[in-house]
Design brief:
TIM Barrel; 14 helices; 8-stranded parallel β-barrel; 344 residues; single chain; alpha/beta
């Protein structure tokens, strides 16, 4: 059985509209609603604070899981994050999932927020947050934070909130295998997804851990239309964010010479200044049409059904869909009526 959810259309809509869309997602039978936890986003638009928005959505929904895709360990002290998320989990009656990643320049550099050693910081942040959720009092001395007889006076509904790592590199995938509750990477083709998940499995095995309660997700763009070209053109317009990382394009087997000044981790390193936007637009010129197709779920309903099946065979258990269809309501209908029933 696979789960299906949608990332809300941020930064394209005002907050009130986002809450209404979330309610429609639940009413249509989907499993989850997700929001980006950003200060800034590309392309630009309205970017609300993630947990305020999720709390509002929790008040008008009853069943769907609610998640961040993804948060980082830099903008909030771990105690504040633990309290904030435990509160939201209480409000939603235990429906919260936390996506957590090492961070992106667009949320940090332009605001002067330091983020040295991001992966080590994410590891320590996760340990502390879980201790504060579980234990009565916490004393801890680490590289980045120190606690003495600290306590949290609100706990998650089930004593813990699942944390899925947005692990896109070898080191973060290894860490996901050792300690995460799930995996939520950026778009990649099914074959590469399977290869990367095998790295997570090996890391879990090396640490003496099984992955019986581990959930494999993916953040993926989708466009559905009655004509293939109409759907594909929607994703072709946003090539840079469909493929995200130059190194992932190369690792997927595309023989593309991407200029060195664009780097290997463009999305993580880009800022919203003039230079950053120039790099974003330039990168799109190097993304092959074939990669857009390979990295996404696009086409007529039968094309999308087949691609979902490929992802499921590669190990995907929870789809976080970014709806880019020429008719977003039609995309939801196709998934609800034709695709989801095939995997339930």
């Amino acid at each position: 059985m696979a789960k299906f959810g949608f990332l809300l259309p941020i930064p394209a809509m005002p907050v009130g509209s986002l809450i209404r869309v979330a309610k429609r997602i639940e009413d249509a039978g989907f499993d989850s609603v997700w929001v980006p936890d950003h200060l800034l986003m590309i392309p630009t638009g309205i970017v609300p604070e993630a947990f305020s928005l999720l709390t509002s959505i929790a008040m008008v929904t009853e069943r769907v899981q609610l998640g961040t895709c993804v948060s980082d360990p830099h903008r909030r002290h771990p105690a504040v994050f633990a309290q904030e998320t435990a509160t939201m989990d209480q409000i939603s009656n235990g429906r919260l999932i936390l996506g957590l990643g090492p961070g992106e320049a667009m949320n940090l550099d332009q605001f002067g927020i330091p983020w040295s050693k991001p992966v080590s910081r994410m590891e320590e942040f996760t340990k502390i947050v879980r201790m504060l959720w579980k234990e009565d009092r916490v004393s801890y001395s680490g590289k980045f934070w120190k606690f003495q007889d600290a306590l949290l006076q609100i706990k998650p509904v089930n004593g813990i909130i699942p944390i899925y790592f947005g692990a896109n590199g070898p080191r973060t995938r290894e860490l996901a295998g050792k300690m995460a509750d799930g995996w939520l990477p950026t778009p990649r083709p099914p074959k590469l997804y399977r290869k990367h998940f095998m790295e997570i499995e090996q890391a879990a095995k090396n640490s003496g851990r099984d992955l019986n309660n581990f959930e494999c997700g993916i953040y993926v763009y989708t466009a559905v239309a009655n004509k293939y070209d109409e759907a594909f053109e929607q994703l072709r317009k946003i090539k840079p964010i469909v493929a995200f990382f130059p190194k992932v394009i190369e690792e997927s087997g595309y023989d593309v010479e991407i200029p060195e000044h664009l780097g290997k981790n463009l999305y993580s390193e880009i800022t919203l200044g003039e230079d950053g936007m120039r790099k974003y637009e330039e990168f799109g010129k190097y993304v092959p049409d074939e990669a857009v197709e390979d990295f996404s779920i696009v086409g007529k309903p039968e094309d999308c059904l087949q691609k979902v099946e490929e992802f499921v065979k590669a190990g995907v258990e929870h789809f976080v869909l970014i709806n880019m269809g020429p008719d977003p309501k039609y995309v939801m209908e196709v998934y609800a009526e034709k695709i989801m029933p095939s995997f339930r």
